[in-house]
Amino acid sequence: MKLFPRNTHFTFLVLPDGSKPALRFRVSAALLLVIPILISLLIVIASTLYLLHERNNRQLERLHLQLASDSEAHQVQLADKEALITKLQTDLVQLAQQADAVDARMEELNKLESDMKSLVGLSTDKTAKATDGDGVGGEQLDATDADIQELVDQTKSFYTSIGGEINELKNRLTSTTKEVQKKKQVLRLTPTYWPTESERITSLFGVRIDPFTNHPGVHKGMDIAGKTGDSVFAAADGYVQETGYMSERGNYIVVSHKNGIATKYMHLYKVLAHRGDSIEQGDLIGLLGSTGRSTGPHLHFEVMKYGVSVDPKPYLKMGIKGIPTDVQLEKRQD
Ligand SMILES: [Zn+2]
């Protein structure tokens, strides 16, 4: 059933106020049906477009917010990274400075090794480097990436080479320690230990004018002036061969050492060691005095090799104390 018959038309009259003529619209019934459908369709399309537009707007807004938030996070990250880079660069500079300190320490160790060798009379290599001092100041410029890279390379290369140097020094110190121990052992068996407290030499080994006869005579030892009761020490490891009293020697001790060497200690106030005692270098064996043929308190120290008196100076020179530079030949003491 049809609402209207085919080709039905409707006429609309618009009657304005006053004397204006009426407006007449003739519309077909079909058109009257299509128009509301079209209008509805337009409304649906418009609503859909509006909703889509709104949704896009919201999405865009969300994206903006997201972007702003991301950008802020990135700024924070960037600032953190920059702080980290600055810290790493500072650490690097400190590491490079520490490298200098390590280098200086290595020099100290090398010097200590030399000192240790000198102490026992071993030959040393004089290879100590001169240091540049601690001066600071000058124009301050920011370090460029190239500067930092150079510092990284230098520091890396330093730490690589110092590892090798430390190993080398360790090996050298091990061998030096062995050499020193060996030398120390030799020095312990040789009369190198300064035999009393005082360092005042008053008469050397050799020909001199005899203090009693005023005629040339041979002095077989070295006289070291001191106070009565001063300690007298064994000049090397050995055993007490003889002790006693003789009118010329006064109270005396003879100590026998290795390699045909013996030492004599004369004019003692008191003999503390006993015949046959095994003694070590530096042991207290007697007290200094002026007994026998003596003009005042002193130690007459004598070194003998295979029974012949020799100059004690070269032996004592090898010892830790060495020979005093200030020899005061003020008085002949015998
Ligand atoms: Zn003497």
Describe the overall structure.
- This protein has helices at residues 29-119, 145-189, 313-318; strands at residues 9-14, 23-28, 200-203, 206-209, 216-219, 222-225, 231-233, 238-246, 250-256, 261-268, 270-271, 278-279, 284-287, 298-305, 308-310.
- With 334 residues, it is α+β, with helices and mostly antiparallel strands.
- It has 2 domains: 1-121 and 145-189; 200-318, Glucose Permease (Domain IIA) (Distorted Sandwich), CATH 2.70.70.10.
- Strand 1 and strand 2 form a beta hairpin.
- The structure holds zinc ion.
- Zinc ion is lined by residues 203, 219, 221, 223, 300, 333-334.
- The site of zinc ion has 7 residues, from loops.
What is the gist of this entry?
With 334 residues, this protein is α+β, with helices and mostly antiparallel strands. It has 3 helices and 15 strands.
Q: SSE order, as H and E? A: EEHHEEEEEEEEEEEEEH
Helical fraction equals 40-55%
Q: Which class best fits the helix and strand makeup?
A: alpha+beta
Q: In one word, what is the shape? A: rod-shaped
Q: How many beta strands in the DSSP annotation? A: 15
Largest sheet: 8 strands, antiparallel
